[in-house]
Write a structure and sequence with these properties.
four-stranded antiparallel sheet; mainly beta; Immunoglobulin-like; single chain; 101 residues
C-alpha cells in the first residue's frame, strides 16, 4: 500500500494505480485547495516496492520504503485551484494495491 506520511498543508493528493505487467505505475495528482500559491511543496510516501523511475517530480529515498517527493523546478509553485500530476514506476515484486492513508 502507498501511505501518505506527510503532505504540505493546503494540498490534496489523489492517486491512480495501473498494472503494467512486470511493473506498477502510480500516478499522483497534487492539488492546491487554498487561496494562496504553494511553493516548494513536498509529499512523503511509503511505497511497497522498488522505485524504477519517476516523471514530473523528484523522488529521494528517506529509507528503504519511504520516499520524499519534491517538485522539479518548473513545478515548484502550484497556484490556487491548480494541480500537478506526476508518476512513479515500481517493480511488481512485493506490490500491494496502493491506498491513501
Amino acid at each position: 500500500m502507498t501511505t501518505h506520511l506527510q503532505v504540505t498543508p493546503g494540498l490534496s493528493v489523489d492517486q491512480e494505480s495501473i498494472e503494467l505487467g512486470d511493473c506498477h505505475h502510480i500516478r499522483f495528482t497534487v492539488r492546491n485547495t487554498g487561496s494562496e500559491p504553494i511553493r516548494h511543496w513536498q509529499l512523503r510516501v511509503r511505497l511497497p516496492s522498488f522505485v524504477l523511475g519517476v516523471y514530473g517530480a523528484n523522488c529521494d529515498p528517506v529509507s528503504n520504503i519511504e520516499y520524499r517527493i519534491t517538485p522539479t523546478r518548473w513545478g515548484d509553485t502550484i497556484a490556487p485551484s491548480n494541480e500537478l500530476t506526476f508518476g512513479v514506476l515500481l517493480s511488481a515484486q512485493q506490490m500491494d494495491q496502493p491506498t491513501a492513508a
